[in-house]
Design goal:
The chain is built from 4 helices and 20 strands. By secondary structure, it is α+β, with helices and mostly antiparallel strands. It has 2 domains: 3-28 and 171-274, Sandwich (Immunoglobulin-like), CATH 2.60.40; 33-140. The strands form 4 sheets. Strands 3-4-5-6-7-8-9-10 form an 8-stranded antiparallel β-barrel. Strands 1, 2, 13, 16, 19 and 20 form a 6-stranded mixed beta sheet that branches. A 4-stranded antiparallel beta sheet has the order 15-14-17-18, with no helix packed on it. It is elongated.
Length: 278
């Protein structure tokens, strides 16, 4: 058996997108670069031993330094989802002439390297991202332990994760979920076929496979097993609904049901057992 067929037999597809009517099946509140374009973040200057607050909103970033008693204003320009430039605007008038010249002369290019629920790591260069790194550090989204084991909180930043969770919860309440599976059988294991949703290919039905698909829009859906003598069932999809679709493949039986809507109890058992395909 080819590696492709072996993979399909144990497939548990969670990252499938079907045009505009299907959404990612692995929904969670993990943060990414888009989530930290706006927000309040803590920065800890290791050299100066001080905490600063960065507030980014739209095309403006404020960097508040209590120790210096200053607030720097920067213009933010996003180059892509994880890279942006900072152009100095004002706030450093009390700094030395050399520092002010440096601020006015160069763009700061920041690349976000990693985002978690608690922090983001980044690297910064002058003028071009391909130039040498001048700073590789962390912006804290929630809190951190200081060198003296004191917990330093950033209460306003928790709203970033909370906001994304609210969006996901709202989306989950509106979309429906299809659990599609094919029981694993030694007989007819080599038979594969396409499964169509409203005439568009959604997945390949192979022996022992299973899929989780999300449907964004309610309504009647045609689900078709693309075999000789195609078989189609209609599923009336409701917001938040959960549906189990069993697929089979049988040689020589013209009227055998190769795709059918199962009740929840049978569907759960069939879907879970397909995981054990090998």
């Amino acid at each position: 058996m080819t590696p492709h067929k072996t993979f399909n037999r144990i497939c548990f597809l969670l990252l499938f997108v079907y045009r505009t009517s299907l959404v990612n099946g692995q929904d969670n509140a993990a943060l990414n670069c888009s989530d930290v374009k706006n927000g309040t973040f803590n920065y800890f200057d290791k050299r100066e031993g001080e905490a600063e607050i960065f507030i980014r909103k739209g095309d403006v970033q404020r960097e508040i330094s209590p120790k210096r008693r200053e607030t720097l204003y920067w213009e933010v320009n996003w180059l892509n989802s994880c890279t942006y430039t900072l152009k100095y605007q004002s706030g450093g008038e009390d700094r030395s002439a050399a520092e002010q010249k440096m601020l006015n002369k160069h763009l700061v290019v920041v690349e976000i390297l990693q985002v978690t629920d608690d922090y983001m790591t980044f690297r910064a260069s002058f003028d071009k991202i391909t130039n040498p790194t001048v700073l590789n550090d962390t912006l804290w989204i929630k809190q951190r332990q200081s060198s003296t084991n004191k917990t330093i909180n950033n209460p306003r930043a928790d709203s970033i994760a909370a906001s994304k969770k609210r969006v996901i919860d709202s989306t989950q309440a509106s979309y429906a979920t299809l659990y599609i599976y094919r029981p694993s059988k030694l007989l007819d294991f080599a038979v594969e076929y396409d499964l169509l949703i409203n005439g568009e290919k959604a997945c390949v039905i192979s022996n022992g496979c299973r899929y989780v698909l999300k449907l964004l829009k309610p309504g009647m859906y045609n689900i078709t097993a693309k075999l000789s003598g195609d078989q189609t069932i209609l599923v009336d999809v409701k917001p938040g609904g959960i549906y189990y679709i069993q697929c089979t493949a049988t040689w020589g039986l013209k009227h055998h049901k190769e795709v059918q809507l199962m009740d929840t109890k049978e569907g759960v058992a069939g879907f879970n057992s397909s995981e054990k395909a090998n």
